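Input record (Table S2, row 329):
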Amino acid sequence: MKVAVVGATGLVGSEMLTVLAERNFPVSELIPVASERSKGKEIEFKGKKYKVVTATEAIALKPDVALFSAGGSTSTEFAPQFAEAGITVIDNSSAWRMDPSKKLVVPEVNGDVLTADDKIIANPNCSTIQMVVVLKPLHEKYKIKRVVVSTYQSVTGTGVKAVDQLMNERQGVEGEKAYPYQIDLNVIPHIDVFQENGYTKEEMKMILETNKIMGDDSIKVTATTVRIPVIGGHSESVNIEFENEFDLADVRAALEAQEGVIVVDNPANLEYPMPKDAHGKDEVFVGRIRRDETQPKTLNLWVVADNLRKGAATNAVQVAELLKAKNLI
Ligand code: 2RA
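Output record (3-amino-D-alanine complex):
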């Protein structure tokens, strides 16, 4: 299969290459795509060297599928051109996520929505992906009424410049700033731009995308998203109120049975999910499973995942795997 990776030189794009190789996706030819500036650069993939081309050149090479992670403006401009040429696009930017004509897919949650008509498929926001994988089995069993989520997000969600800022600050070195404030030894309660209602775009993504992916607008979601000086992955404190009563042992069993979830929950042995353990992995790790004792039918969870993997690259590759399994690419 001819596979294009648009944004191949970025953090998520290079993670896509890693995941494609690790999961042995049947790539007969790789087409790495980046801006004019990177054109001609060599990318190594599974022992072979490929030259970076522009998006326009990639269309002419007629890939079967194109994984995009090159920002919203590139997706807005080029995803329709790829789709017009009969190339299926899986886009990691936010450009198409809330477009009513486009599917927003986490394979373990709503993979069944994909059809042959879907030529531009949106990959959800990283902090949304890891949460809905956990919500899915619980919604099916107990019907979710309300979710209150607070996130603790890795600087890798911002990109290389943010990782460099953290490392420079840690080493007392001056350098470019990705954030308006120091990030080392600090937390910044601000991810993406503030909206009229006082929420940030990141918080609104978690709210709106969750309803679309779960296919249920009755689920009330509120979010506070925070940047922290970590690189291994995003962590989330999730409080879930259900319509129906639950038994903690059944909750644990449902989570353990959920595809893509690993339960790490043994406080007596100090076992709980942490970004340093999730780093480089594809699963969503859940622990600190306990009742909210302030009100009935309410649960507290702690959810951790590598935001570059399941939160972006791996989910996109899993969508491609699902399309292939359904003979849609
Ligand atoms: C972040 N979820 O963490 C956003 C985009 N990757 O910055």
